[in-house]
Amino acid sequence: MFNTKKLSSVYALCALCALTANASVVTLGRDGLMSLDYYHSSQNLTPRVIDARPSGGSVEFDVEFPGNSGSDSQMFYGSSLYGGEGSLIIQDISGYSQFQMNFELLGIQGYTAQESETFELWVSPMVHDGDTYKFFPSALVSTAAGSTQASPAMDVSLLAAGIAKKGDMILEIGFELHMDDPTLWPASGAVATLLVTPAAGADQIVPEPVSILLLSYGAMFIMSRKICPKK
Asked: Residues 6 or more apart from 108 whose CB is under 8 A from it?
């Protein structure tokens, strides 16, 4: 179900202006990262961003993991057609080859870097294009020396937004993270601080208001996928 808050933003469909592909890589800048506001929770995943703050051109996210069970170990965080403001989904990134961001695990609150070296996280850019989640390849980060940073990138050359290509509408975009071995994390929970930085030299996806026409198209798109099975 769509979030009715989006209906407060009434703009013409020309808001679907495509990014100009001056580079082969597209990324989320600070404003795009700060606009992320939706958790994909079809599996009742419990981790949440409890604070997000700009840090230069980057954003620091404090992610709370309530425990170390399966549902406590993974988070999909993005801008979505299904909820939140959805200010990134109207972009067309079909002219790019890769979607990339830089991740750095700054620390685990209450633990020294050495104490938390076994608290490893897999991080990845994430796009949901209407068929399935695409969040590969993931990269491993930890507080161990030399392992705190990673720059995973995913192939987006076949993805598009809006009405560029039937079946390839971007429904969610953001990032995914999950514990490498949940049993090595505290059963009582932990808060990880993650610095996310746009890829250097890449074009940045800029948040845009969502139009009613786009929402109408999105509704018809989803209904058509439910009514008309693939051959």
From this structure: 115, 116, 119, 143, 190, 191, 192, 193
